[in-house]
Amino acid sequence: MKRHSGQDRSITQNWRPATLAVRGGTARSEYGETSEAMFLTSGYCYDRAEDAAARFAGEQTGMTYSRLQNPTVEMLEQRIALLEGAEACRTMATGMAAMTAVLLCQLQQGDHVVAGRAAFGSCRWLVDTLLPKFGIQSTTVDARDPQAFEDAVRPNTKVFFFETPANPTMDVVDLRAVCGIARERGITSVVDNAFATPALQRPMDFGADVTAYSATKMMDGQGRVLAGAVCGTQDFIDNTLLPFTRNTGPTLSAFNAWVVLKGLETLDLRIRRQSENALAVGRFLEGRVPRILHPGLPSHPQHDLAMSQMSAVGGIFAFEVADRAQAHALLNALELIDISNNIGDSRSLMTHPASTTHYGVAPEARAEMGVTEGLLRLNVGLEDPQDLIDDLDRALRQVGL
Ligand SMILES: Cc1ncc(COP(=O)(O)O)c(C=O)c1O
């Protein structure tokens, strides 16, 4: 592989995010291709047996096996790390592989985790079900209140784990306050930044230690592949995360890495337009539906906090209608917006979390985190917002709203 300026930190450190999104991490083969090459290979060959031995011993740079290294995957990892302002990044096969790895790589029996109670259903399952199975205690708190984290700390607390904004209630966590509490106590703060992405919010700028992603969402951005990522210091990635992932194997495929690399080139454009569209749709829904959960709207109780740590709020928000029957009827009345539990797509998608993404969360926990029977989550895409408003207007009238 030939060096490209996108690989040289002394050069990339002067580049702005739009440049990093297109060129950061790029490496070129001897053919000088403009678009990043896709290396669909599981293994690598060596000129001599001694070279293989030297690479395994870490005495020679180079690749050994695609569970451990792959040129296309490494380009993506460098690009995400540069956008995030992190020393290093490791990608994974899915967002959930990233969340599982980032927790299990650093926790052991007897440890304790404090987690935000509003979270994606599978993230709650990790905290509520998987960790306790291995003797790791967990406490869930209302993450909108930094004091709740402080109050939940025990002598054995090792990790704070939360999403901001959270899926699907859009709870916003005060990054500076909560990460500050973690820092003071030697606790590692892990922020699931899937909704915002580094294009809108860089948690490390506010003191977060580690960020984790479902890159399936805004980073791919067109609903094509599943992917995940974890960013942190070089020491955390190399010495805490890698020993776990090298041997357990939640590796991202080169093909999927290539798709996400291409997605990152347009991330900033997409997420800003989707944020504008979501605000337009949110303004339309405000007052028309019983309750709207969109931190980009000035009426949202956490609007000022959201705007102090995000440059825009993104394309996803939630709102409430009366109950499950009305929520399902509204979904069924849509003609343009699709019924789908995915998010981050350039297509507008809507789901009823209580019966889909949060179906597996116990009803009491769902109620506690605000996933009511009437809650709907909307991913606003890149369509003309007036067409989305027209679709919603017609569907709302059909269900009597
Ligand atoms: C906040 C959040 N974290 C993690 C995940 C899991 O990501 P994946 O579906 O890529 O495994 C999701 C998926 O919706 C999510 O919304």
Task: Based on the model shown, name its key terms.
5-stranded mixed sheet; Aspartate Aminotransferase, domain 2; alpha/beta; binds pyridoxal-5'-phosphate; 40% helix; transferase; 7-stranded mixed sheet; 401 residues; transferase activity, transferring alkyl or aryl (other than methyl) groups; methionine biosynthesis; Aspartate Aminotransferase, domain 1; single chain
3D structure, described in words:
By secondary structure, the protein is of the alpha/beta class. It is built from 16 helices and twelve strands. The protein has helices spanning 9-12, 17-23, 49-56, 71-84, 95-104, 121-133, 146-152, 175-184, 197-200, 234-248, 254-265, 267-285, 303-309, 324-333, 363-369, 385-398, and strands at residues 88-92, 112-116, 137-141, 157-163, 188-192, 210-214, 228-232, 291-293, 316-320, 338-339, 349-351, 375-379. The strands form two sheets. It has a seven-stranded mixed sheet, with helices on both faces. A five-stranded mixed sheet has the order 8-9-12-11-10. α5 packs parallel to α6 and α14 crosses α16 (385-398). The protein is globular, with a radius of gyration of 21 Å. The mean pLDDT is 97. The protein binds pyridoxal-5'-phosphate.
Count of individual helical segments: 16
In the CATH hierarchy, what is the superfamily of the largest domain? Type I PLP-dependent aspartate aminotransferase-like (Major domain)
Number of domains: 2
Helix/sheet category: alpha/beta
Order of neighbouring strands in the sheet with most strands: 1-7-6-5-4-2-3
Global morphology: globular
Distance N to C terminus: 60 Å
Task: Tell me the name of the CATH class of the largest domain.
Answer: Alpha Beta
Oligomeric state of this protein: single chain
Main sheet summary:
7 strands, mixed
Q: Give the strand tally.
A: 12
Uncertain runs: none
